[in-house]
Amino acid sequence: MALTADVTLPNGKKVTVPTGLYINDKWVEGSAPKLDIVNPATEELICQVSAASEKDIDAAVAAARLAFKTTWGKNVTGFERAKLINKLADLIERDSEELAQLESLNNGKPVKFALGGDITDTIGCFRYYAGWADKIVGQTIEVDNKTKLAFTRHEPIGVCGQIIPWNYPINMWAWKVAPALATGCTIVMKPSEITPLTALKLNVLVTEAGFPPGVLNTVPSLGSVGGAALASHLDVDKVAFTGSTITGRKIMEAAAKSNLKKVSLELGGKSPHLIFESADLDQAANWAIMGITWNTGQDCTAGSRLYVQDSIYDKFVDILVKKAKEFVVGPGHDDNVSGGPLVSKTQFERVLNYIAAGKAEGATVACGGEKWNGKGYFVEPTIFTNVKPEMKIVKEEIFGPVLAIGKFQTEEEAIALANDTTYGLGAGLHSKDADQCMRVSSALEAGTVWVNQYNLLNNNVPFGGKKQSGIGRELGSYALEEYTSIKAVHWNFGEKLPWPL
After folding, report:
1. N or C: which end of the chain has fewer CB within 10 A?
2. How many CB atoms lie within 10 A of CB 484?
3. Distance CA 128, CA 276 (A)
4. Contact (Cβ atoms closer than 8 angstroms) between residue 424 and residue 446
């Protein structure tokens, strides 16, 4: 049975996509029921993909362990790792148009954003961590200069289970894979069961780049099967997960009950966005609407709670609603669209249910709020005003283009409203008062705070959450710590031990 499918990209070209599991540099059939992969813009089946069972996960982990002990891990130099990582970046750059088209087909996002944003950042991420591969160093520590010294080694932690979501399939793949490879870890990657196509296609490039078999293995699977197996596996040394807080709890529990493996979690958010009266209102509105509509609102840091100072509230809402109505949703191949569909029927219905809840609880619809009547899982930007703190649309993560707008009088009140959440992933503020920017950014309880901008990240700047938004950091040099363990070596070169003591 062929483990490939010929699919038609949004630009009309055909491409062959692997549909098997990628284990030990071979494509194999999964032993779990196949996964249906659907185009969210048309609701039509793209293809079917093999799914991993617990037995398949065992095989992938065994391949990763063998590679770690023999051809990767401490067996290659940082220079060699850097060369291969840079080669992979070159190949992604070569195939960037095809990958962007495939990402759009599977996820729904506009090709122009997949190409100019996701793929470009992915290439940059690999180049950044290639630069780190030969610069992972420890310390020499003074103990007794006459007889002893100590030094530390930052060693690869081992086999890493990596579980990524469906909202940024190729970006999240890079965020996980690049630092793990740079440090010398081996990987078992579980992409989302909804959007596995780019992860599978990238393994073709992994082979072409020349990575040893078993260094990177990819096992599409249901989260309850593959994700659960990785989290509880006794031969997995670390699990990295991006997704919901509910699932993050399950992963942490499974890791604790198995072998106490290291865990990093990038979880949900209900991010606040503050607009102070001194702000450039037109620019603040641009950032605010981008902050809730980027990736059709399917973003962990989406600025879904907007608080505006009362003195400018009415004026700012008018500007914002006008800009929201200029937002165009449509299929990803259209260069004129601002956003694509939601990723699946499940997510589409979830967002519509939240919109219905906002209406039922008494919030006012300033724009949007209606069901899409055509084919595809499209939702237009929806803005609610007259919201109250206890409303579901204010408290719970929606993961769609739904914005709740409240107001505040004082800086202290704005900070209190912003921090009134169990999450702490992102936050933003707009003000021309430099002292205020410093005070408020310091007071906001979030892992990332944007000042006079929103939702832009850089590969050399760490990203992660506080409170129930996660544990650990991705990107920047900080991500290297998630994939290394520190060994202390105590060396005695002069002290003689008398005996008996």
Report:
1. C
2. 21
3. 36
4. yes
Tokens coding 478? 């900080």
Check: CB of residue 203 under 8 Å from CB of residue 20.
no
Q: What is the set of active-site residues? A: 266
- How far apart, in whole angstroms, are the C-alpha atoms of residue 85 and residue 190? 20
C-alpha span between 182 and 133 (Å, rounded): 4
> What's the structural domain count of the chain?
2
How many Å apart are CA 248 and CA 233, to the nearest integer?
16
d(CA 65, CA 48): 29
Same domain, residue pair 295 and 178 = no
Q: Who contacts 500 (Cβ-Cβ below 8 Å, separation ≥6)?
A: none
Nearest to 413, CA basis, from 309, 313, 311: 309
Is 279 found in the same domain as 234? Answer: no
Q: Which domain holds residue 190?
A: 4-267+465-487
Decide: 14 and 7 in contact? Cβ < 8 Å.
yes
Calpha distance 360→316 (Å, rounded): 25
Please tell me the distance from the alpha carbon of residue 37 to that of residue 194, in angstroms, as a whole number.
Answer: 6
Q: Dump pLDDT digits (tens) for 211-266.
A: 999 999 999 999 999 999 999 999 999 999 999 999 999 999 999 999 999 999 99
Three-state DSSP class for residue 282: helix
When pLDDT is averaged across residues 27-55 and rounded to a whole number, the result is 97
Same domain, 211 and 320: no
- pTM for the whole thing? 0.96
Question: Is 494 part of a structural domain of the chain?
Answer: no
